[in-house]
Amino acid sequence: MNDKNICADPCPIARSLAFLGDAWSLLILRDAHFGLTRFDQFRKSLGIAPTMLTRRLATLTEEGILEKRLYSERPPREEYVLTAAGRDFLPVLIMIGAWGSQHRSGGKLVYIEDAETGQAIKPVAIDEVTGAKIGSRPIRFVLPDGG
Amino acid sequence: MNDKNICADPCPIARSLAFLGDAWSLLILRDAHFGLTRFDQFRKSLGIAPTMLTRRLATLTEEGILEKRLYSERPPREEYVLTAAGRDFLPVLIMIGAWGSQHRSGGKLVYIEDAETGQAIKPVAIDEVTGAKIGSRPIRFVLPDGG
DNA sequence: AAGTGTTACTATCATTTTGAAAGCAATGTT
DNA sequence: AACATTGCTTTCAAAATGATAGTAACACTT
């Protein structure tokens, strides 16, 4: 898809997708938020080929979304943990899940709840300024300056 | 990635990604929300090969995210418009964009504003029940019943 | 000390997907 | 009649993916 060019694209959606625009990366991030950190945990959870997993983890690490952390010196073993940027991706994953719950339901479906109160969570995206739900009002994409 | 199996996955994120987990589909949806409807509009906007575009539009249509609409009988021409499910995907795109704005900034970046008031929009995902921002509290993924 | 297990990979290769370029069908326009 | 427009399809090379097997570095067991 030519990721290099996309990085110069003024669209923040395109920029996000440059390295996160494939299902494996997003599922790895899902599992990382779920608490998985190790190669074999991801591999077993996803049923992904190790070649793929190696490459995806490397890219996510290079892109600052995951970082390696040594958890054993002997034998030397590393795990992958979310960076701040990776943690900030949670709302995206949650909204993806919310769409799936609404439009790809059927059968048992995982839902999310507050870990402390046990209350089921209903995710919505809003404009923090006005409080209006995204989608409830017409929006416009704007490129600043002489674009 | 084996999309058939994913459809039976109880994870709504995985289900969403079964057919939306690639960059082209997401960029097509972005453009559709921007107002594009025609084959050549998408092709030119994205620089995508027509083979790819044909396949992606077909899948998105089969999956009920876009639908074909005849806009000219002679010559017979069709355009692609968002269905309700497609329109509901806007919050996801906006959150993807919000992440990109924060973590892939640099240079001129498109932002979104209210089309009527001109106010810039700051998208956040919250729990509609409590109003708490997603990410501000620990959450848990739950599979109901005997899972 | 030899064998077995664990974890995180790499190597190899067949299959699938993608991308680039060109072509085509059904019209409208000049 | 020739050219333009729109929405594709055909063809084929190149790249990505997936499956399977193997390796490296150690720990643990016998």
From TrEMBL, chains A, B:
<feature type="domain" description="HTH hxlR-type">
    <location>
        <begin position="11"/>
        <end position="108"/>
    </location>
</feature>
<dbReference type="InterPro" id="IPR002577">
    <property type="entry name" value="HTH_HxlR"/>
</dbReference>
<protein>
    <submittedName>
        <fullName>Helix-turn-helix domain-containing protein</fullName>
    </submittedName>
</protein>
<keyword id="KW-0238">DNA-binding</keyword>
<keyword id="KW-0804">Transcription</keyword>
<keyword id="KW-0805">Transcription regulation</keyword>
<dbReference type="Pfam" id="PF01638">
    <property type="entry name" value="HxlR"/>
</dbReference>
<dbReference type="InterPro" id="IPR036390">
    <property type="entry name" value="WH_DNA-bd_sf"/>
</dbReference>
<dbReference type="InterPro" id="IPR036388">
    <property type="entry name" value="WH-like_DNA-bd_sf"/>
</dbReference>
